[in-house]
Write a structure and sequence with these properties.
The protein is α/β, with parallel strands linked by helices. Helices cover 42% and strands 20% of the residues. It binds xanthosine-5'-monophosphate. Residues 153-154, 197, 199-201, 252, 286, 323, 327-329 line the site of xanthosine-5'-monophosphate (XMP). It catalyses: XMP + L-glutamine + ATP + H2O = GMP + L-glutamate + AMP + diphosphate + 2 H(+).
Length: 331
């Protein structure tokens, strides 16, 4: 609409004035906010912006490819894809405590990111997809300490010693639905703009216990099936009701891999393999949530596809706990 175009023009002017001729860097995660801010800042200053995508190996199936496809192929942005998969795998070996996992992954993320900023050289600004609710949540503006802290998955992490960037946060007056609208107007694909919330530490916190390559492979494959089936389910609901909201009725859904094995049977053979937990919730804001009352045939299809298609899995269970008392994630 003309209003969205008007807002974009205004933001573009503002960003150009703020940035001048300086170089800007942005940590691209493939999430909604960082993707929209990347598209917007790129529209304003073109190749003065470099996006750094830190691939820690714990993203969902197809996500790194989508980031490449959208930002490199479609938008032709300068994009640095940092393959940190092995670095992370080594770092996480033997780590089982959820908080320790989160901390290690977050700290390492910024270390890798600032290393890349150094390599690019003369970077003076950091663009961030901070949106209005983030500011309310963190209270970060209370002290006016804009350049002192950066948003990191609900936490504020100080810049390393001697590092300084001026922040540019062009979405900081927008709500989530406005950010999505902006993203569509900027030409981002719907599946990116409507991406579900996904934790910064990624699949690491959906693997209970130690993260190993074997467990990661199982979870990626099982999770892809859950998402495929429930994307289709949401789509069917939308077609039946014509209501856009029901397209996202089942709000967040994914697979979780617990750290146990159970006995099963396959042909004449006893198996001793992993179960997969399916988590699907309805929620408005993630503060509270209810488990999704999925039709049995949908649950059944997810189950049979997972045990048929994912090697090493002999059982599927469905999590029927609301939040509270459970959380949406398992770690
Ligand atoms: P919980 O598990 O606390 O999750 O009910 C609430 C919502 O937040 C997401 N989540 C995260 N998002 N970084 C994020 O950006 C994180 O570390 C993180 N942990 C949980 C979760 O997926 C759910 O939507």
């Amino acid at each position: 609409s003309w209003t969205m175009e008007g807002i974009i023009d205004q933001k573009v002017d503002q960003i150009r004035r703020e940035v001048g001729s300086r170089k800007v860097i942005l940590a691209l995660s493939g999430g909604v906010d960082s993707s929209v801010v990347a598209a917007l800042v790129h529209r304003a200053i073109g190749d003065q912006l470099t996006c750094v995508f830190v691939n820690h190996g714990m993203l969902r199936k197809g996500e790194p490819e989508m980031v490449e496809e959208v930002f490199r192929e479609q938008f032709h942005m300068p994009l640095v894809h940092v393959h940190a998969e092995e670095r992370y795998a080594k770092m996480l070996a033997g780590v089982t405590d959820p908080e320790r996992k989160r901390r290690l992954i977050g700290t390492e993320f910024w270390r890798v990111f600032f290393d890349e900023a150094q390599k690019i050289g003369d970077v003076e600004m950091l663009a961030q997809g901070t949106i209005y609710p983030d500011i309310i949540e963190s209270g970060a503006r209370k002290t006016g300490g804009k350049a002192a802290t950066i948003k990191s998955h609900h936490n504020l992490i100080p810049f390393p010693e001697g590092v300084h960037f001026d922040l540019i946060e062009p979405l900081d007056h927008f709500f989530k639905d406005e950010v999505r609208e902006l993203g569509i107007a900027l030409g981002l694909p719907a599946k990116m703009v409507w991406r579900q919330p996904f934790p910064g530490p990624g699949l690491a916190i959906r693997i209970i216990g130690e993260v190993t390559p074997e467990k990661l492979a199982i979870l990626k494959n099982a999770d892809a099936i859950v998402r495929e089936e429930l994307d289709a389910y949401n789509q069917r609901l939308f077609e039946e009701t014509g209501d856009r909201n029901s397209e996202h009725a089942c709000w967040q859904y994914f697979a979780v891999l617990p750290d146990i094995k159970s006995v099963g049977v396959m042909g004449d053979e006893r198996t001793y393999q992993r179960p997969v937990i399916v988590r699907a919730v309805e929620s408005a804001d993630a503060m509270t949530a209810d488990w999704a009352k999925l039709p049995y045939d949908v649950i059944g299809r997810i189950s049979s596809r997972i045990v048929d298609e994912v090697e090493g899995v002999n059982r599927v269970v469905y999590d029927v706990t609301p939040k509270p008392p459970a959380t949406i994630e398992w770690e």
